[in-house]
Design brief:
Number of domains: 1
Helix content: 25-40%
Number of strands: 15
CATH topology: Creatine Amidinohydrolase
Order of helices and strands: HHEEEEEHHEEEEEEEEEE
Radius of gyration: 17 Å
Bound molecules: cobalt (II) ion
Largest sheet: 5 strands, antiparallel
Shape: globular
Length: 256
């Protein structure tokens, strides 16, 4: 069931969202050539716990995946789309791109956000992929308000991405969030204007376009989690948790 959050619930979600934002800002300083992704995970978990939060992805189980997710961050490098697992032997190199997804629980409520970072100087192609993916999220946020539909949101992403020559990940979607990391509704990054569920003030949503440079197909690696592009092309991911208001979307994970 899609729930409408009360004001006291939204206040707690803002606390969780602020910790998420703090982590994404900390990583901006830590991400550089030579750093391994497990040390990023350790630094993030440390900040989350010192802030009174819980790293919600750690130990998270998904039907159909045999193992629990083992880390506080998802760190997905270059052709990895989402759910890359931090490892001490994965060392960032100049020119890489890395998508980091972080979900924090505070007082039984959750905040969820992601962004893709460049490692040192990156190519113009990669810069463009990051920019277009970021901007597609903001196109989606711009149509969110009470009375808009999920189709409006998906269309905002799809109609921005496709004419620019990029591929859209259609196998994964955004989601409601609140008392659980994943709540209904699912929020596809494609759709038709006016179709789908009508948004109401008080809904809290994690909107998260995932975009690739090449063909629209993804596969999961043998670890059961890491999703990569089938053709090895680059991928990017931007996500924010927002509150639907009568006038628009209020961002609950303000990392920018
Ligand atoms: Co999410």
């Amino acid at each position: 069931m899609v729930t409408l959050k009360k004001d006291h619930e939204i206040q707690i979600m803002k606390q969780a969202g602020r910790v998420v934002a703090d982590v994404l800002r900390l990583l901006e300083e830590l991400i550089r050539p030579g750093v391994d992704t497990l040390s990023l995970d350790r630094a993030a978990e440390d900040l989350i716990r010192r802030s009174g939060g819980i790293p919600a992805t750690k130990g998270y189980r998904v039907p159909g995946i045999a193992t629990a997710y083992p880390a506080s961050l998802c760190t997905s490098i270059n052709d990895e789309v989402v759910h890359g697992i931090p490892r001490s032997d994965l060392i960032l190199e100049e020119g890489d791109i890395i998508s980091v997804d972080v979900v924090v629980g505070v007082g039984r409520y959750y905040g969820d956000a992601a962004r893709t970072y460049g490692v040192g100087a990156i190519s113009e192609e990669r810069q463009r992929l990051l920019q277009v993916t970021h901007d597609s999220l903001h196109r989606a946020l711009a149509v969110v308000r009470g009375g808009a539909t999920l189709g409006d949101v998906g269309y905002a992403v799809e109609s921005y991405i496709k004419p620019r020559g990029f591929g859209l990940v259609r196998d994964y979607a955004g989601h409601g969030i609140g008392r659980h990391m994943h709540e209904p509704p699912q929020i596809p990054n494609y759709g038709k204007p006016g179709r789908g569920m009508v948004l109401k003030p008080g809904m809290t949503l994690a909107i998260e376009p995932m975009v690739m440079a090449g063909e629209e197909r993804v596969v999961t690696k043998p670890d059961g989690w890491t999703v990569v592009t089938a053709d090895g092309s680059d991928a990017a991911h931007f996500e924010k948790t927002v509150l639907v208001t009568p006038e628009g979307a209020e961002i609950l994970t303000p990392w920018e």
